[in-house]
Design brief:
Layout lengths: L1 H33 L18 H6 L3 E8 L1 H4 L8 H13 L3 E9 L5 H7 L3 H8 L3 E5 L2 H5 L27 H6 L1 H18 L4 E5 L9 H22 L5 E4 L2 H4 L3 H4 L9 H15 L1
Parallel strand pairs: 1-2, 1-3, 3-4, 4-5
Helix pairs in contact: 4-13, 5-9, 9-10
Length: 284
């Protein structure tokens, strides 16, 4: 009798321990899905374009759009000069019953987060942003990759300061990592200032990609820094239901020759079109 009781007691204990282990494993799995580690590219589902925002956009009678930021906002690298801003406006005009107007494109070649923080204080800039239903923002690439360029520039001339890998000696892994903290803080400040300038606009931030992902010297560290940057941006944007991050990282990885211009930094027309498709998807 005692032997039988001992056997049943052992089986019960083993069952309880197994159940506890399963529950712990389930909890950790849920935690890992909801809070992915920094430094890893966010899983594709968490980068899906926003739900709920499209409902608010349906209430608007027209789309008045402005763009601000760096050379990607301006459309540098696109032979047509449209970039993703004008392409997005064209797509919305074709696919929406609402009137779509581009108020102004305030993109500036070479602009950094530091420069944009100051520019947002200018009355003329604030006037445009206050009139906008949609603000498209691109900033950060010049902060992270300042000084990086290819051995062969767009006109085919050799850069005498470049090394054998085709990169200027100014760009290093240490420099890429060192600019991340302060620049990402300024990005958060920029998003906050934009919301302060226009409390009702739908703000679209175009995420970063690593234009040098096919170059050994900058591939791993570039991917790491860009992923961390995008994660920081996403964390800030998640606090505002009328902000959206449009991911671009996956568009260019393994497709540099297809979607980058000859300067190997900016998108070409096809690359800008891909980004525009996602912007419009997020609006509609």
């Amino acid at each position: 009798m005692n032997s039988t009781n001992w056997i049943w007691r052992s089986v019960s204990i083993a069952s309880i321990v197994s159940t506890i282990l399963l529950l712990v494993g389930f909890i950790y799995a849920i935690k890992d899905v909801n809070a992915p580690q920094i430094g890893k590219e966010l899983p594709r589902p968490s980068q899906q374009l926003g739900a709920g925002v499209s409902d608010s956009m349906d209430l608007k009678k027209e789309y008045k759009i402005s763009a601000i930021g760096d050379s990607l906002a301006k459309g540098t690298g696109d032979d047509t000069g449209k970039g993703y801003v004008k392409r997005s406006v064209d797509l919305l005009s074709m696919n929406s019953s609402k009137k779509t107007t581009l108020l102004n494109n305030l993109g500036i070649n070479g602009l950094t987060t530091e420069g944009l923080v100051t520019k947002l204080d200018e009355p003329g800039v604030q006037y445009v942003l206050k009139q906008s239903d949609i603000i498209i923002l691109s900033i950060g690439g010049n902060d992270l990759f300042q000084g990086a360029q290819l051995l062969s520039s767009g006109d085919g001339q050799k850069d005498e300061t470049a090394d054998s890998d085709g990169l200027t000696n100014d760009i290093t892994a240490e420099k890429l990592r060192s600019v991340l903290p302060k620049s990402s803080e300024r990005l958060q400040l920029i998003l906050e200032k934009l919301r302060g300038i226009n409390p009702e606009a739908y703000i679209i931030y175009v995420g970063l990609y690593n234009p040098f992902g096919d170059i050994q010297q900058l591939s791993t560290v570039g991917n790491e820094v860009v992923t961390t940057w995008n994660n920081i941006a996403q964390t800030t944007i998640n606090r505002d239901k009328f902000m959206l991050l449009v991911p671009t990282y996956d568009l260019f990885t393994h497709h540099f020759g297809r979607y980058l211009s000859t300067d190997h930094f900016h998108p070409n027309g096809d690359g800008y079109q891909k980004i525009a498709d996602r912007i419009v998807q997020g609006i509609q």
